[in-house]
Amino acid sequence: MALKSLFTLATAFALLAVLAEAHSWADCVDWRFNDPAKPGWTDKHGKCHGWARQYPVNSGVRFGGLDSSSPNRHYQQDPDDFIPCSDKNHGNEPGADETRQNPISRAYGGRFGSMASVKAGDSICVRWPAKNHAVKNEQDRGVFINMPPTPTTRDPNQSQLTKMNIAKLKYKNCNQISGDSDHTPCGGCFKIPDNRVAGTYMVQWRWELNDDEWYTSCWDLQVTAKNPPVQPGQPGESVARPLSGSTSIFAELAED
Ligand SMILES: *[C@@H]1O[C@H](CO)[C@@H](O)[C@H](O)[C@H]1NC(C)=O
Q1: Is 80 in the pocket of ligand 1 (CB under 6 A)?
Q2: So which residues are the signal peptide here (predicted)?
């Protein structure tokens, strides 16, 4: 009997440890604010338009709860290999499968979420659950957003991705929920560089919790071209031209 209560107590403590040690992942990778003047991460503030690879959108699990699913959504990289995206086998915490699909569209739609999209030069936002790590006594080492300069046919490896950093976000940028530091929603926005050509890019969310303790989420991002700048002297230009002299480029061409 005493042994049994001891066992129950040990189980309870183990469970507590698991709860306290829960880790994060990118819950939404194309979060759009209802009112850009009032940015935020609760369901009142916005809506998700894009998800990570093979993200189970119809799971019925509440926001921030997928770490209790099987498999866990969070993926902790193994410092021996630093595989960029979970393959559900490797890692200190293997997490859920986020390997690149062929074709890429196989990771989206149906029971999975839709693919994120953005125009080059525009901003895009990512949301994640705090999982008890957005509290005062924890250091914010940040979330790194890594994205190749051009679309790639394979995912880069981690050392390549690390060099492809385009943004660093504050992990603790959250709408704190009083009494629930676990399910508190957090997020950040970053700009897609202007010079990205249209195409499908892989993007990595990489959160450093402690030294060499990294969690990642991976997704594919459909980038459309930035509105091309109109060249002076071409049809459609918006630059004002003097009324005197040639009034149209066609007249100029005709004079030659
Ligand atoms: C990553 O890829 C680059 C280029 O192919 C290669 O030189 C490098 O050794 C790779 N690094 C790791 C850790 O695999």
Answers
A1: no
A2: 1-22
Q: Tell me, what amino acid is at 241?
A: R
pTM for this model (two decimals): 0.83
**Domain boundaries along the sequence of the chain:** 2-228
The CATH code belonging to domain 2-228 is: 2.60.40.1930
Torsion angle, alpha carbons of 162, 164, 170, 173, to 10: -120
Largest separation between any pair of C-alpha atoms in the chain: 104
- How many angstroms does the Cα of residue 158 sit away from the middle of ligand 1? 8
pLDDT in tens, 230-239: 776 655 444 4
User: To test ligand 1's pocket by mutation, which of 90, 153, 160 has the most ligand atoms within 8 angstroms of CB?
Assistant: 160
- The predicted-structure confidence for 163-186, as pLDDT tens digits, reads as follows 999 999 999 999 999 999 999 999
CA–CA dist 125, 123 (Å, integer)? 7
Nearest ligand 1 atom to the CA of 82 is 13
Q: What is the pLDDT of residue 254?
A: 35
Alpha carbons 205 and 52: distance in angstroms, whole number: 10
Instruction: Write out pLDDT tens, residues 122-143.
Output: 999 999 999 999 999 999 999 9
195 CB within 6 A, ligand 1: no
